[in-house]
Amino acid sequence: MTLELGLNQQPAHLRQGSSIGQxxxxxxxxxxxxxxxxxxxxxxxxxxLYAVLAVSSIARGRVLSLDVEAAKAYAGVVEVMxxxxxxxLAIDPDAKDNPFMFRLDLxxxxxxxxxxxxxxVVIGETLEAATEGAxxxxxxxxxxxxRVGLDDAESFVPRGVGxxxxxxxxxxxxxxxxxxxxxxxxxTYETPAQYHNAMEPHxxxxxxxxxxxxxxxxxxxxAMAQGRIAGLFGIAPENIHIRSPFLGGGFGSKGMMSxxxxxxxxxxxxxxxxxxLVLRREQMYGPVGHRAPTRQTLRLGMxxxxxxxxxxxxxxxxxxxxxxxxxxxxDASHTLYASPAIATSHDAVRLDTGTPLFMRAPGExxxxxxxxxxxxxxxxxxxMDPLEFRLRNYAEVEPMSGKPFSSKALRECxxxxxxxxxxxxxxxxxxxxxDADGFLTGWGMGTATFxxxxxxxxxxxxxxxxxxxxxxxxxxxxxxxxxxxxxQIAADGLGLxxxxxxxxxxxxxxxxxxxxxxSGHTATAGMAIHNAGAAVIxxxxxxxxxxxxxxxxxxxxxxxxxxxxxxxxxxxxxxxETYGDxxxxxGLKEIEGSGKAASDPASLEAxxxxxxxxxxxxxxxxxxxxxxRVTRLVGAFAAGRVINxxxxxxxxxxxxxxxxxxxxxxxxxxxxxxxxxQNANLAEYHVPVNADVPSVEAxxxxxxxxxxxxxxxxxxxxxxxxxTAGAVANAVWHATGVRPRRFPIRIEDLLAR
Length: 753
Ligand code: MOS
Hints:
Elements: H1 29-33, E1 49-55, E2 61-65, H2 68-73, E3 77-81, E4 111-112, E5 118-124, H3 127-135, E6 140-143, E7 168-171, H4 174-179, E8 183-191, E9 203-209, E10 212-216, H5 222-233, E11 240-243, H6 259-271, E12 275-278, E13 294-302, E14 308-320, E15 342-351, H7 364-381, H8 386-392, H9 410-421, E16 433-434, E17 440-451, E18 457-464, E19 469-472, H10 482-493, E20 501-504, H11 521-545, E21 560-563, E22 566-569, E23 572-578, H12 579-585, E24 590-597, H13 601-606, E25 610-621, E26 628-638, H14 645-664, E27 696-700, H15 719-736, H16 747-751
Parallel strand pairs: 1-12, 10-11, 14-15, 19-20, 26-27
Antiparallel strand pairs: 1-5, 2-4, 2-6, 3-5, 7-15, 8-13, 9-10, 9-12, 13-14, 16-17, 17-25, 18-19, 18-24, 21-22, 22-23, 25-26
Helix pairs in contact: 7-8, 7-15, 10-11, 14-15
The structure holds dioxothiomolybdenum(VI) ion.
């Protein structure tokens, strides 16, 4: 029985009275379903005005004129912010000291570098007045031709991809490996531009008090946002208080402060009153990041037994004309399949778009579509079942680095998901399965992987003499359930039942919890929480074991354990006392401690650390009309310790549905003449609804990892999207005999045969 991860699969020392591993529902769930959760845009401080962006309708050129007078003449319009009157900043918005400092459009001049770039901000007494004022600006432009496609500009090799990885890497001799191969395949795949489209648009309510700034805004990284704003305005970070208790999704787009959020702060500065600025849906297609399109060519060589002799993965990607984010798509081939020769390379073109950005599994999502499709093509070319082919090329060590894996239960993932799906009865040839209604049926699979990352975080813990505890860290919950998982880790770290624990997060005046990104938040902030709990318990144990009045006297710090609000002797658990008794005898109302977390450099050096998974997909294709439906998805994932199986499964479901979306639906369509995005709305930018994904299962495969961190936590937020789109594409091939090489898969491509 693999579907429920019970407590009996947790290590013994966490079994009894443990919160970790329990399938608790979200602590904030009730607030959310009853409308009690206050999101950034729900705030309404005294005297607040409404700011509305005016954005460019061209992709490239210059704003020649804005009818500021007409806008200001409209009843209720208070002010119009343009490059002429925008308050000064301490640094150039185009300055960039590090890869996480994205260049911002903050009305620094009249230039237009992409569609939907902010060109003015209208501030009014009401949202309606500001909206009407923005419409009255009637901008006139000098228009230059837009560069919109993967071949529209000179290509170049970027200095770094992703967070600065080398753009070109290799081991072994790929050309020799291809030449000596018994079988070779070469194929080129294209993936489109995608937009994060979080349910909650970027929003900010900003209020200045002299040089102090109070902000409500969604953020995946409060300390980083605080630092960025401090730099832009030349004020101390501690003068800035950011509250971000609830996010309606982020997916990477709220990782860094965006231009429009900073414009809200500037608008409040200009008018000397609190200001709210909320992006309209279409305004999110430009200034807040996107997933860049790619064109990827894979060349694979195999020997007579179906073993890879060479993997060559080249990706072309795009960035904006003024900044540097490059989707690291080809790097997906570093991790998954053993091969004596591997080469990955990237080139890029600069387009008149907003700067692309991290978007759920940046690099892995795009790269694994191409890699998993190519692996499927290679298996078929070798006359092998795709699962057998993957097992034949199973990587026992990380292929590119040669490092051992800190843990890797991918074989178990393959087996458990394949069994559950019924893969063994799949015919090798395509177009052989039909259902009772005559629909072509196909089964495909893909491998999922995502690195187990850790960043830096701090937490503060308090135990009180009434037996309750408090844990504080400035963590962010995008909706994934982080606060529930963190509270579980905190309860265990403090040896408390979870209902005796208060957990505070989502505010910049709490200890820095790092970023909710890179699937590293649970591991990073979780370890800080765990360590803060341990620090308080150690202090408490020092008190008790040195006190002759305590049953723990003389047990030594190592000789006690904390559980259910009591310290107990390890050698005799019937002897112990409550935290309250220890503190009261010591004359203390409370005791506090703090903890930090960061990745361990020695482990990073010694091991490759990744989560893994296997996804199997069934599709049905209308033989006459080429319409594709995903009817079944089964994924099995191994990602170290599971803190909360309900929430982890929910992350896998979400990731897998993103995979379906990638394969069949999502695409931002750009008009070649104007450079404008034609479907900048949720009616025409398609994402799956329930009817698009009838059955999704996620199996949690047990995995102990002694190296990633003391709790053995890997990340779960991004891995689900990585194997799924390839699995769907491979299932479409198996149903139809047509190999999808362009995403999303289009009806006309399937009918072309
Ligand atoms: Mo994610 S793209 O690391 O928010």
